[in-house]
Here is the input.
Amino acid sequence: MTETEDTFLALDIGGTNVKSGLVTRGGELKKHDSFPTSDGKSPAHLIELIARNLKKLWNESASDGRPKALAIGAPGWIKPKEGIVVMAPNIPGWRDLPITRLMSQALDIPAVLENDANLYALGEWSKGAGQGRDNQITLTLGTGVGGGLILDGKIWNGSFTSAAEVGHIPLVGNPRVCGCGRVGCLETVASALGMASIMKERIAAGHETLHRGDPNKIDSKIMMELAGKKDPLSLRIFREAGEAMGYVLSFVFNLLGLETAVIGGGGAGAFEFMEESMTEILERHVVTAVMSEIAVVRGALGGNAPLIGAAALLNACGH
Ligand SMILES: [Zn+2]
Here is the structure.
């Protein structure tokens, strides 16, 4: 008789999509699904859809036994211990939402809450590009720049669960206004959205580019294609983003003595175009270790990283 491994449910709630998964205790993603966040017509309706979606995954995999627990990754301002989403800027109406209690009641299993970028980092640490390195940071380049910090093999949340908000570390001389209302934040130049905005502005200002067609349709994917064809404008913007990340990462490496930075999220597709300028700055500024022992690498798990990280979180919580 073969012994079946314990399974967990995993949830990654984003402003665009809600992703769900069934993952083994060892971090193998057995099944996953997703639906647009905008399908939820109200906060309560969205919760209902999420519960239905998780139950569907569960039922489809009845042979794997009853999942032991659920890990929820949520964006915005959360209180993990209390299980509350205080505010999620990209999900209308989500204020002071006791999501852990609601999901736990709907599914009748224990649930835990964590920041989405932290779950992403746990995924890369346990099964992805950061395996075997217990002091590391993951940057996710998407709408913003998320950060997940792992110290001594554990997520570091800080006193106000505001740790690793690297996207809002300011860059000297950067005049751009961030979505958070502050000026100069890293994410204005290094997020997928920020890079696309800069590209549009520079096209309007007459910078030379191979891009033809409607500049308003430019996103980081189009920029990556252009960069692959040696488009000077997109290559320059990626190089500048690499430099900006290099400065912020130098600061973080020097402060914490980390060994690895993992670059994930949709914008990480441009890693090859950012790597050189980023490494140049790191070589110039990192003093905490021998450069050859530091690794700045592209994430290996893509968008499923948070679902895989759910297993690491639930193991760490004793489920
Ligand atoms: Zn900011």
In short: The chain is about 35% helix and 20% strand. The mean pLDDT is 93. The chain has two domains: 7-121, 129-300.
